[in-house]
Each structure stands twice: as C-alpha cells, then as structure tokens.
Amino acid sequence: MKNAQCTRCTRRFHEKDIYTIQQLQYRKEPNYEWSKKFLETIIGEWDSLCEECVKHYSDISRKAWQKENR
How many alpha carbons fall within 13 Å on the CB side of residue 5? Predict the structure, then answer.
C-alpha cells in the first residue's frame, strides 16, 4: 500500500522508499551543513521525498554550490 506522500510533487509511494535531505550527508561536495542551510528555505530537513525529488534537490544544491565556489 502506498501510504507516504512526497512533500514536493505530492506523489504517493511506499513508506520504505522515503527519502529526506539527510541523504545528502553522504556526498563529498557540497557538505551536508552547506546543503542543509541552502535548502532550509525550500524544504524541511525531515520532509518526506520520493527518489526523483531528492535527486532534484541534490542537483540544485550542487549547482548553486559550484556557482558559489568558482
């Protein structure tokens, strides 16, 4: 049964497939603290996301970090 809902796209998915921006702590750059601060105006740290949307937030934070650190 699909009983979780993505905060961004409102798509429903299985609870075991929930992602949060916490997943971003495992990448090297940008570090998690930078990503969390950047994304805090867009989404909460513990908001439920589907896989596609967590990738979206990962991409926009990485691009912003790269632009800032050129």
Answer: 3
Beta bridge partners of 13: 4
Beta bridge partners of 4: 13
Q: Tell me the residue type at 19.
A: Y
pLDDT digits (tens, 9 = 90+) for 2-11: 788 999 999 9
**Domain total in the chain:** 1
State the average pLDDT for the chain.
93
pLDDT in the model for residue 1: 66
Domain around 48: 4-68
Distances (CA, A) of 22 to 1, 2, 52, 70: 24, 22, 15, 25
